Amino acid sequence: MATQHSRSAARLMMAPAVILLLGWMLVPLIMTLLFSFKKYLPLRGGDLGWVGFENYVRFVTSSAFWPSVLATLAIVGGVLIITVVFGVLLAILLNQPMWGRGIVRILVIAPFFVMPTVSALVWKNMFMDPVNGLFAHLWTAFGAAPVEWLSQASLQSIVMIVSWQWLPFATLILLTAIQSLDSEQLEAAEMDGAPPIKRFAYITLPHLGRAITVVVLIQTIFLLGIFAEIFVTTQGSFGTRTLTYLIYQRVLESQNVGLGSAGGVYAIILANIIAIFLMRMVGKNLDA
After folding, report:
1. What is the pLDDT of residue 82?
2. Under CATH, which architecture does the 31-287 domain have?
3. pLDDT, tens digit, for every residue of 83-140?
4. CA pair distance 267, 56, nearest whole angstrom
5. Contact yes or no for 76/217 (Cβ under 8 A)
6. Can you give the residue ranges of every domain in the chain?
7. What dihedral angle (degrees, nearest 10) is formed by the CA atoms of 157, 162, 163, 165?
8. Quick one: DSSP state of residue 250?
9. pLDDT tens digit string along 177-233?
10. 90: which of 24, 30, 171, 200 fits an S-S bond (Cβ 3.0–4.6 Å)?
């Protein structure tokens, strides 16, 4: 057992890292809270004084606020559904014995290491371009008119792009969970005459419950701050302006740091509400 002296030494050695981490998180948060109560226009007079909750009222009553929240939730929900469903299917497929399985796994996981801006540019120019894109050529080959994806199906396009980036992550986590499944259970169920669908529904899927909740939790945390894909493709047009992009517009485009800071506080509140809900869901699965 660790002695009191060793515990004190451990705390002392960890203190610099903890202080640095707290400062890294608390200083921007405190500055955001401070600016949210001020009228701060860097190019039009700078700090114009304390305005109280005026920025919060202006931001939440803006006609763009609730559509941006709904767009954020729609993108997060769409990406989670696609990545979880196809992640489970890919994990099951990659767990089957096949020739070159290791190479296939590497190719499936590779998109996760591509930068968001690069993948968005690839999808925008190589796949979704209405003139020279791959989808346009496929549509033309079947006698259909090419679809202008980023204007006619903008929200679906963003969901598709982001899902392609996060599907490898979900597949990797779920594949690891499937590999820990006791094969004797599946063999016993198969010997008892259970069809593949029932073996999946009653054995494989319950076993993946914890892994799925972890995938949902981690992806949601990152997806709430999605920005690069929207900036590169639609720039917030056609109903794709998320809460993060709206904050960017308020701060950089309109040069209103106070209003953007108030939006940042709303984003933090939204993220915490969703995180609390997901943590409870994860806790229930982990205790089960």
Report:
1. 93
2. Orthogonal Bundle (1.10)
3. 999 999 988 888 877 777 777 777 777 787 888 888 888 888 888 888 888 888 888 8
4. 12
5. no
6. 31-287
7. 130
8. I
9. 888 877 777 777 777 777 778 777 777 788 888 888 888 888 988 888 888 889 988
10. 171
